[in-house]
Amino acid sequence: xxxxxVGSSDYVALNLTHWENLYYxxxxxxxxxxxxxxxxPFESCFETTQWRLVKDLRSSASSPAHLDTWLxxxxxxxxxxxxxxxxx
Length: 88
Prior knowledge:
Layout (H helix, E strand, L loop, with lengths): L1 H4 L3 H6 L7 E5 L5 E5 L15 E2 H7 L3 H12 L13
Antiparallel strand pairs: 1-2, 1-3
């Protein structure tokens, strides 16, 4: 059931990240969090990191395509060359 009800990382990166009031936060090891808020939250999402509007990130990006690629890769566990893979 989970596979049918959850949007793909492409859908989230290319569609939901354009919605109003979506905020993001980047933590240690580029751990990416998203959350909708009705207005700018005052709470921090990690110890020293504040929530920022995805809309502002998009408007300041030098390349929208590069940003979409980064967002998709940050939301997916898929990798072409997994480090440390030794099999089972």
